[in-house]
Amino acid sequence: MNMVKSLILGSAAALVAVGGAQAADLPVKAKAIEYVKVCSLYGPGFYYIPGTDTCIKLGGYLRVDVLANTNSDDTGNTSGAGAAGNRFTNGYTWRSREDLNVDTRTATEYGVVRTFFDATFSWTTDSYAGAGNGSTIYSPIGTTQAPNNANAGAVAGGTVGVYYAFIQFAGFTIGKAVSQFSTPWANYPGNSYDGLVGGGGTITGVNQFTYTADFGNGTSLSLSAQDQTQYYQAGVQNLGVLTSPYGASDYAGTIAPDLVAMLRVDQAWGLFQASFAAHDNHAAYFGGSELTGHPDDKWGWAGQLALSIKNIPTGPGDTINVQGVYTNGASRYNIQDLAGSAGANTIFGHTNLPGAYQSIGFGIAPDSVFIPGGQQQLVTTYGMRGAYVHNWSPNWNTSIYGAWAQVNYNSTAKTYICGASGTGVDGTWGAVFGAAGVAGMTSCNPNYSIAQLGTQTQWTPVKNLTFSADFTYTHLDQNYAGTLAFPGTASIGKPAAVYELKNQDTFLLLLRAQRNW
């Protein structure tokens, strides 16, 4: 009997064990897959991030540029090797770039919270620099690497740039974005050329804290504090440091951001904008220590008016964009950071003057200049830029564009630089080059102007794929005359010789292919 009971209990235990094992092997119900859903709140291209109420859009472009007669990517050949006009000036410069941007938006009880990020990854050919002994160095690598860019393609050999990184919420913009002073077309009223004078730019964004009030009917007002250090410091030049006739940059640490106000009216017919900026010029010391003293701060300012007229009678989508600007002690709001050498032009050219080796032209546009023991003398500029864009068809358009800027020094600053005689002998020119070096200078005047004229044609054979050709001519009209015994510069192969002081002309051609996505 006990044996039968044991068999029955053992069989029951076995059945329970088997049943438990089978139950453990049963499939567990999987968590529902959260598929990506289209977000139609903010336009095409947005999707909900799975599991959230935040919408995201990815975008960007791939761009390839080839430029003729310049050593930089479309900012002009107005200094350095690009302006040498010899074997150190590139016949072409090539750049390939990928741009990536991420746009996120979330609806909240206070309105939309937006973040925007834009970065670029670029590889640009550069140029060789002379060592002064018959050898050259490929300039991005320097003297420690072999020529021909041994690290070509590496991250360290190319560039990674953060253009925009900002938050927008309840009317505030906080972070790195285009300056509120700039127009919606920024540096491009109808062109791809980066180097136009005649207005503010900051294509790659500037750190800022901005509040924008929207009054409805396309009218808005923005008030902004923005960082001045990266893009809006043209130079507070200490003429007591005689590294050049224009002294040396002598900035102190940051103390005050630029203050910007912008009023915009945006309608179906076009746009009107008025911008104002206040800019503090904060210099360090006259000499090497605190004991030497310093000049007082001087606030400069800039004002700009802009107008866009859309759908003019010449054709559907045709546009005219124009703007004008005036600055006093805030030169970069006119001659922006990508404008050639941003107001530091040294261009070489030909000459027919007997006894002169070549010609040279100068145009320098700081915010202020001063001498030890003196106060800052603010530099004044004014200018304009504009373009007319005509659409031949949905696939073809052509623009004609131009820009102009004038740079003026006050009488005190001119005396510092050119001396009381006005010949440079008793000014900083004579101190740098010696009386013999400037003996042939018949007129010393640091005022100058830049004029630019160009045309661009674009072909878009399919959506988001565009091929462009952009030709730009630049004229430097400087006010020095006579000759200069220039000491030469080994890095671009210019010898010590007598050069004629003369106006200069340059040009460049951009060919571009771009695929947006």
TrEMBL record:
It comes from the Bacteria. It is found in: Cell outer membrane. Forms passive diffusion pores that allow small molecular weight hydrophilic materials across the outer membrane. Belongs to the alphaproteobacteria porin family. Residues 1-23 form the signal peptide. Keywords: Cell outer membrane, Ion transport, Membrane, Porin, Signal, Transmembrane, Transmembrane beta strand, Transport. GO terms for cellular component: cell outer membrane; pore complex. One of its GO terms (biological process) is monoatomic ion transport. Its main location: membrane. It comes from Bradyrhizobium macuxiense. Consists of 16-stranded beta-barrel sheets, with large surface-exposed loops, that form a transmembrane pore at the center of each barrel. The pore is partially ocluded by a peptide loop that folds into the pore lumen. This is Porin. It is a multi-pass membrane protein. GO terms for molecular function: porin activity.
